[in-house]
Design goal:
266 residues; alpha+beta; Arc Repressor Mutant, subunit A; 14% strand
Length: 266
């Protein structure tokens, strides 16, 4: 028999591992991460989440202030608990000096940036381009805010100029809106919007500043009336009788542009 015929090939057997000996290199390779990882548990219901974290998550995505009742309904918590948590969060952000603030504006809650960081936010958002209201638009907006609901004709009477173009600008920016029809004249009435309150940082129109501190004193008005305007003589006031008064003479009927009262000049 030749040497080739006498050789038999035996299958390799697994290496024998003695007690205390190091494991082979191939045995030390860990399993893939996908095999070792555990399946994450399902997310708990909203009502089981901590209320402060749930409020922060919801308020982070809102586009306008959200009321406490709506937040309580969505998160399934009592309204009183939601209101207390919102105020606690607002106080914590202020104490910690965060760059944002949680404010109650226009009947709801929303995140806002701090005024001290307005310059940085303005550079990022506007990129150097500013869009401000003109003086005429601010005056018209003030008339609407303090005398609403008011028609365009009444606004023009107060300002002394036509305000159609300015009103279109305010409507386009969402600061004012239509609010019914005036019964006597069938003119469209206008009022401010919730967006106006939000931009002004007001909860309601009751927080508008009083006009009295900005008006001239009565003594100054009387002195101006007695002395007349510069370059214009003082004209004697003609007697005026209200409509409904009885008299022997009839005269011309006038309508005051600001209050609509009818007078008769004798």
């Amino acid at each position: 028999m030749s040497d080739d015929e006498g050789v038999r090939l035996e299958p390799e057997s697994a290496p024998e591992v003695r007690a205390g000996a190091p494991a082979p290199l191939d045995a030390a390779v860990p399993a893939p991460r996908a095999v070792r990882g555990k399946i994450p548990p399902p997310a708990p219901p909203v009502s089981d989440s901590p209320l402060p974290a749930a409020l922060e998550a919801v308020l982070m995505v809102v586009q306008e202030p959200v009321t406490e009742h709506l937040l309580a309904h969505v998160l399934e918590f009592p309204v009183a608990e939601v209101a207390a948590t919102l105020r606690t969060l607002s106080l914590e952000y202020t104490t910690q000096g965060r760059g944002f603030d949680l404010r109650e504006v226009a009947g709801g809650w929303r995140f806002y940036t701090r005024p001290e960081h307005a310059a940085a936010v303005e550079r990022f958002v506007l990129d150097g381009q500013q869009s401000k209201l003109t003086q005429a638009a601010l005056e018209t907006l003030a008339v609407v805010a303090y005398r609403q609901p008011v028609s365009r004709g009444r606004i023009s009477s107060v300002r002394g100029v036509n305000c159609d173009g300015v009103m279109r600008t305010l409507l386009a920016r969402g600061l004012v809106e239509e609010y019914g029809i005036e019964y006597e004249t069938q003119a469209t009435l206008y009022r401010t919007t919730e967006f106006f309150l939000e931009r002004m940082g007001l909860r309601s129109l009751d927080e508008l500043p009083e006009l009295a501190p900005f008006l001239p004193e009565i003594e100054a008005l009387e002195a101006e009336t007695e002395g007349g305007l510069e370059g214009f003589p003082v004209r004697a006031a003609s007697p005026v009788a209200r409509s409904g008064d009885t008299g022997g003479k009839s005269g011309t009927v006038h309508t005051a542009p600001d209050d609509g009262e009818t007078t008769t000049e004798v």
